[in-house]
């Protein structure tokens, strides 16, 4: 194991990113239809939080231009991306172009937008937003859900997409 590096008050963000990136996660798309416009973003910070009440969370960068739009929706959709969604994952994080081009989506009556062929779907409303450094921890209350547990997920590790080994 490498020697521990003490972090000062102004830590090197590339070291932090590299070290945080050692922790493998899935990738989710947080999306909604707001005033007729499809808005959404890829996140690797999705995690389950509580069974009762049913809560999940995502961490959103404070400088995100998408979150201020998404948070206006009456409901947001969370789609857990499948192994076949690597291009969708990249597209949903792009700073230019239409993030939804070529993607097949469905929208619930409340405006939660989901991707087809996702591993799991959640329809959520915002429960609480907690400021946390340069991010906001967004707690989402789950209103409806669906799971395809046998569908292989997309994995994010070391700043790259991977698939689970067979
Ligand atoms: C795999 C992956 C995971 C990401 N995870 C997060 C995340 O957890 N939180 C976040 O705020 N942005 C995350 N992003 C970045 C956003 O998708 C998006 O690029 C960023 O918010 C800037 O776009 P915006 O200004 O439209 O929000 C991730 C991007 C990728 C490719």
Explain this structure to me?
- There is one protein chain.
- This protein has 3 helices and 12 strands, in the order H-E-E-E-E-E-H-E-H-E-E-E-E-E-E.
- It has a 7-stranded antiparallel sheet with strand order 3-2-6-9-10-5-4. Strands 1-11-12 form a 3-stranded antiparallel sheet, with no helix packed on it. It has a two-stranded antiparallel sheet with strand order 7-8.
- It is mainly beta and 166 residues long.
- The longest helix has 8 residues, at 13-20.
- It has one domain (25-158): Pnp Oxidase, Chain A (Roll), CATH 2.30.110.
- Flavin mononucleotide binds at residues 27, 41-45, 59-61, 64-66, 89, 93, 156.
What's the layout of helices and strands?
Elements: H1 13-20, E1 25-26, E2 28-34, E3 37-43, E4 47-50, E5 55-61, H2 67-70, E6 76-80, H3 86-91, E7 105-107, E8 113-115, E9 120-132, E10 135-147, E11 154-157, E12 160-163
Antiparallel strand pairs: 1-11, 2-3, 2-6, 4-5, 5-10, 6-9, 7-8, 9-10, 11-12
Bound molecules: flavin mononucleotide.
The site of flavin mononucleotide has 15 residues, from strand 3 and strand 5.
How are strands sequenced across the largest beta sheet?
3-2-6-9-10-5-4
CATH architecture: Roll
Instruction: List the ligand species.
Output: flavin mononucleotide
Under CATH, the topology can be stated as Pnp Oxidase, Chain A
Mean pLDDT: 97
* Whole-number total of structural domains: 1
Summarize this structure briefly.
The chain is mainly beta and 166 residues long. It has helices spanning 13-20, 67-70, 86-91, and strands spanning 25-26, 28-34, 37-43, 47-50, 55-61, 76-80, 105-107, 113-115, 120-132, 135-147, 154-157, 160-163.
């Amino acid at each position: 194991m490498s020697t521990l590096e003490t972090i000062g008050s102004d830590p090197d963000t590339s070291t932090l990113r590299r070290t945080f990136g050692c922790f493998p996660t899935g990738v989710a798309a947080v999306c909604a239809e707001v005033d007729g416009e499809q808005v959404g973003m890829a996140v690797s910070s999705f995690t389950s939080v509580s069974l009762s009440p049913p809560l999940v969370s995502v961490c959103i960068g404070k400088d995100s231009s998408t979150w201020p739009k998404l948070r206006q929706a009456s409901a947001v959709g969370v789609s857990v991306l499948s192994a076949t969604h690597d291009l969708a994952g990249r597209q949903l994080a792009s700073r230019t172009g239409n993030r939804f081009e070529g993607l097949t989506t469905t929208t619930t009556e409340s405006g939660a937008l989901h991707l087809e062929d996702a591993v799991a779907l959640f329809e959520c409303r915002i429960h609480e937003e907690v400021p946390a450094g340069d991010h906001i921890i967004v707690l989402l209350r789950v209103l409806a859900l669906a799971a395809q547990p046998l569908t292989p997920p997309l994995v994010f590790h070391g700043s790259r997409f991977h698939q689970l080994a067979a």
